[in-house]
Design a protein that fits this description.
Elements: E1 2-5, E2 8-11, H1 16-25, E3 30-31, E4 38-40, H2 44-48, E5 55-61, E6 66-67, E7 84-87, H3 88-91, H4 103-114, E8 119-129
Parallel strand pairs: 5-8
Antiparallel strand pairs: 1-2, 3-7, 4-8, 5-6, 5-7
Length: about 130
């Protein structure tokens, strides 16, 4: 992946530059980064329509098992980028650490640790991981 940042071309193996550029362009509303290997569930929008918190985490269907979401496990290797929707103002100045394979987990963990009471959890898969390969 290649992104232009201040007229300079930068490469990013995991999309960190692209996501940071998007965060710089977004001023308000909800932020959802959908990985290239993740698709949303048909109930995604109806389930999230009435969210009253600033961040929502939900389960992910991996085909053979469900990746659950548990407040005590909002950390690297326990949550995927496709499992969270976050209000822009809650993200603040948090950015993706570029070219870290675990950059999405670090991003989510940082926001959660700073604002644990701003989150709600849905015990239902609202995205599929690698469903196109099933």
């Amino acid at each position: 992946m290649v992104v232009f940042d201040n007229g300079e071309c930068k490469e990013s193996i995991n999309g960190g530059h692209q996501r940071n550029c998007a965060l710089d362009a977004i001023t308000d509303g909800w932020v959802y980064f959908l990985d290239d290997d993740t698709i949303i569930h048909p109930d995604f929008f109806s389930e999230l329509a009435n969210a009253t918190t600033s961040a929502v985490a939900f389960e992910q269907d991996l085909g053979t098992w469900i990746r659950k979401v548990v407040p005590s496990e909002m950390r690297v290797c326990h949550i995927d980028m496709g499992q969270v929707v976050i209000r822009r103002e809650l993200i603040g100045n948090t950015r993706f650490i570029v070219d870290q394979h675990i950059e999405d987990g670090l991003f989510i963990e940082s926001i959660y640790k700073s604002n644990p009471n701003a989150w709600s959890f849905i015990d239902k898969p609202l995205c599929y991981y690698n469903k196109l390969r099933w």
